[in-house]
Amino acid sequence: LIIIDGGWADNASAVREVIAAHGNHVNAWILSHPHQDHAGAFNQIYASPDGITIDAVYDNGFDYDFIEAASNVTHLHRGDVLSICGLTFSVLNAYDDTVLQNVGDEKDYQNNASLLLKVSSVNSSMLFCSDIKYDMNDSLLVACKDQLACDYVQTGHHGNWSFSEEFYDAAGASVYFIDAPSSITDNADFPASTLKSDLLAKGKTVLDFSTAPNTVTLK
């Protein structure tokens, strides 16, 4: 069992149910960045595991109080490659000088330093864009455009103020997951709605909370 993020602290009970279904054993818990809607459930469970064993914890290297693990956390770096449970995790973005140079006027270090992960099996792959925003778009296109091709994409920052059409075209995936409710993905006030309509117009499959549970298989 590999968990990426896990949601708010209020989601901890639901996450515990998933872990219980896997024998209360987590092989790896990956925290894309330290915002509470991503690390909150982890902090609750790590503080009070109640029989849950977590073999390894990984984060984006942003030393931030929201992530409270101390004993077994590994800070990932751009260029790292991990093998976990038969999957290959390539780290394409993490907190470093590249983020500091491209973070933009908002100084949104936490989101723009999110992990960009390409998770690959033998014949398929998925791109996890976490909450990375537009500030990193050009830099990442230059640095890793040839590594973006994949079958599935979790779009950056809930589909809002995220990557360019060129970025998602480079990924070339057939299925895109926007981690947001339809009140955002179908609401013209949010950029996610434009992203969704553009992807659908290109014949892509778009998943969001309204289509849950969403399942893909890396073969």
Features:
single chain, 219 residues, alpha/beta, seven-stranded mixed beta sheet
Draw up the topology in text.
Elements: E1 2-4, H1 12-20, E2 25-26, E3 28-30, H2 36-47, E4 53-54, E5 57-59, E6 73-75, E7 81-84, E8 87-93, H3 97-102, H4 109-112, E9 116-120, E10 125-128, H5 137-144, E11 152-154, H6 165-171, E12 175-177, H7 182-185, H8 191-201, E13 205-207
Parallel strand pairs: 1-3, 2-4, 3-5, 5-6, 10-11, 11-12, 12-13
Antiparallel strand pairs: 7-8, 8-9, 9-10
Helix pairs in contact: 1-2
Q: What structural class is derived from the secondary structure elements?
A: alpha/beta
Taking all residues together, what is the mean pLDDT? 94
Taken from the alpha-carbon principal axes, the silhouette is globular
Strand order of the largest sheet: 7-8-9-10-11-12-13
Give the structure's gist in a few sentences.
This protein is an alpha/beta fold and 219 residues long. It is 28% helix and 21% strand. The longest helix is centred in the N-terminal third of the chain and has 12 residues, at 36-47.
Write a structural description.
The mean pLDDT is 94. The protein has eight helices and 13 strands. It has 219 residues and is α/β, with parallel strands linked by helices. A hairpin with a 4-residue loop joins strand 9 and strand 10. Helices cover 28% and strands 21% of the residues. It starts with a strand and ends in a 12-residue tail after the last strand.
